[in-house]
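TEACHING EXERCISE
Course module: macromolecular assemblies
Task: Read the component lines below, then compare them to the predicted structure of the full complex.
Student: A.B.
Group: 4
Components provided:
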Amino acid sequence: MLEVSLVGRRDSELWRRAITIFVFTIAIISFGVAAPSFFTIANIRAIELSSSVLLIASIGATFVILMGSIDLSIGAVASFCGMLVARLAPDLGLWSVPIACLVGLVFGAINGLVYVYLRIPSILVTLGAATTISGAVLFISDGRSLSVSNAAVIDMAQGALANMVPNAVLVSTVIYGVAILVGDRTRFGRMTLAIGSDEQVAALIGVKVNTIKIQAFALSGLLAGIAGVLLAARLGSATVTMGSYMTLDTITAVVVGGTAITGGFGNVRLTIIGVLFITILSDGMNILALPPYLQTIVQGTVILLAVLLNTNRASAEDVK
Amino acid sequence: MSGVPTPIYTMRNGSKRFNGISVVEGIDLDVFPNEIVGIAGENGAGKSTTLKMIAGIHTPDAGSMRLCGKSFRPTSYTKAVEAGISMVFQEQALIPSLTVYENIFLSLEANFANPIGIVDRRAMMAVSERHFKDLGLDFIDPCRRTGDYAFHDRQMIEIAKAFVLAEYFHIDHPIILLDEPTAAIGEREIRILFDSIRRYRRRASFVLITHRLAEYVELCDRIYVFKDGRNVGEFAGEQISEQSLHRVMVGRTRDDEYFMEKRQLKLVGAPIAISVKGLSGHNVQNVSFEVRKGEILGIGGLVGCGKEAVAKAIVGFEPFPSNGTIEVGGEALPLRGRGKAAIVRGMGFVPKERKTEGIVPYMSVQANMSLASLPLVSRLSGFISGSRERILAEKYINRLRVRCKGPTQLCQFLSGGNQQKVVIAKWLARKVQVLVLDNPTRGVDVGAKQEIYGVLRDLAEEGVAILLVTDDLPELIGMSNRILVMREGEIQFVCNAPAENKPTEQELVQHMV
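Instructor-supplied answer key:
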């Protein structure tokens, strides 16, 4: 069975994908030519590491967006879980890691429950959650940065398998692989897409739509938590807003990966393109020493262009 | 009509290609004043494309059009409207949140504005009101929200809009294009619509496309028949009959074979598959009936008579009437979680809204087909097996003759009939014992329709109990072993419909209204 994808493939899609990858390659080569340090092991390692964190968070976002919902609390959850690990690591050591991740899951599940049972649009639920959780981060940290003072936790992100593959990359690769399987080959994956297309389709085949929705948000929270923990471990310290960039970057990554922001079309496989795109672009500009303000402007513009190139706007019935 | 009539509109050799594929070619078409012209043909015959060329939505690649003796080359729909051609769109073009008069004058407000730009709403209301009165639509209040009116009323508003705009652009005799105006309305509304069209023809010409041949016969003065993008026949007056149209359209004669009535089973003492007792609730009163294994029970009635609610109650599609009991295989369905319970007991539902309730357009054919039976195609690990899913899909693609490039093609790209077959396959994959269908052939072309009927006959022979809720009278009569007619939530009439003694449409209709 050599089918590339069983769900969500279009012929014209292949072309667009090819163009994206072509442009992408050109960009990488030009970064390499302009800045000799771009292709050094150290830099590639840096790209790998920051992609890993964003990829994990973006996978959760993909399932939520496929369903036609949105999760704006990913950044706050990541910050909270990163901070929690820094708080708990001195006392609990490695145990702080699963605890922090679990807290992410709980946050996500609460988002899902509120969204489903109080019938509040997910964009508002998670917007409120983001603010609340950001406050909670300040609460548990007293507004200060904390260093992660436990070697085992640090090693989890900074260590490397056989001195070759950083642990963080390993973790994200495994999660990515499982996510692809889940997306293509499980009921949950199929139903997120079906719900994004139209809830009635799923409801009429006896699926508990609410359960799937809560699961998707819980998953998004869990993965945001893992991303936050890895980020703190990688940096060796946690700051109160360290995860906040993820909220919008995950959405960008998902959309650049070709998933429709309205849901019902796309898959988790391609989200990695969006993630690499964002990371390589900002890394390349850093190496070229572009002024930071200019970087932001370029980033925004390039993201718009990427979306333009990578999404099928013709098929969208209504653009809202 | 005086003297030698000259056509108000002509198309000569109209042709249109999309992506290099010819959709219509060499179409000649005339519209005379006060005439109702039909364009008949199977799906994909080029009817809609032709209508859209007339309306300026598609520009012909070749050929010429003339309107009122002058060359007519509209570059957009707006230009066509200015020249006196309006279209009543299948998917309505009115904005529900605006009032009726705001919709009518949408984009023309500037003409009611005083020099400083303030729009004279009273004038707009007055003009709308006068037209509604002229057209016999007094019951429509121009100041109400358009969305408050039912679908068929909005359709009348669109037709009224065509007259208002014609007057506005100083057109004496507009041409109004109707694209499947009866696709989404019931028998009673269709009557009202047709009566109106007959009245308005004094002031306008109409060009009509519909899925129901009987409507062409009833309404049209002249009918063009299209097949594969070409003109293959023209009928006028006495020549028009369903048989003659059908013969030219599809190249085969229509007879009992269409519904495969000879395959209808004679059921004596077959076990009861499903029994509905005293079903009541919103719009439904005390409905009781039984469906036996191998039986096709048809429920007919006007839109809003409660027949859809009965189907919903059986499959647990909320909201549904909740009083009374529904037994499947002798056991009552629960009120809570009925949808799930119904499916577990072997029930399947082919819903009315194919695109939003039946299929997931951006999923492959195979993923859609396995959607309701994922455990059957999953491995022990719990993951879906691509190869098992493919085998399942290939089986049903062959069995139902689904025309697609393969199991991995997206459903999005399938025709309506083939999408519907995918929905049916989704349930067949679960080995259903009871299949409930709500207008299964709505918007499906004649050929695919017959194939769906064949599938239903197959299922009945295998002992599946089928409940067929439909607005399509020939289908109701042709397919059913037994027919229930509902009116205002109650069962009004029940009759047997054995293959050799089918009731007539008239017999049924008298119980509907």
